[in-house]
Sequence to fold (165 residues):
Amino acid sequence: MTKIVDVLLDSFNHEAKQAKVVLAAAKSVDMDYTPGQGMKPLKELANHLAQIPSLDHRMYSREIETAEQAQAQEKELSRDDLDGMLSVFDDGIAAVNARFRDMSDKDLLENKLKPFYETRSEKNWAYYMSEFIRHIAMHKMQLWMYLKLAGAKVDMMTYYGVPPK
Fold:
């Protein structure tokens, strides 16, 4: 019988694989590119996407307990080049898989979590795993749009994780 955690990890890994292809497509774009006034530079957005796997599960579980700790971790994980960002992304994916691989459905559904920024009631890992996957998906799309606007050769195949030939 398939465990719920296996289904969620499969979804996480699928979204992460797609996001990695979009991240890698940024190699052809100036990392200082900004699509408009008041928007983040491409480098900052790519760093944020690359850091999501390392940071989100740590915030949900309260390993990171304050905004200041989160910002310090972001700064520590920030990289100047895309290869470094991809390495941070890969390390985060490995950490997530290691953390959840052997989790029981009971632990997934019964452990109560509340990140430092949350004002509502506690939730379980199943809830936050879904949040985690959506967070990656949202910034994958944002980065893909930045790349399109910058003139990079990306298309829907890139968005869906098909590497260029």
Q: What stands out?
A: Residues 4-159 form a domain with the Four Helix Bundle (Hemerythrin (Met), subunit A) fold (CATH 1.20.120.450).
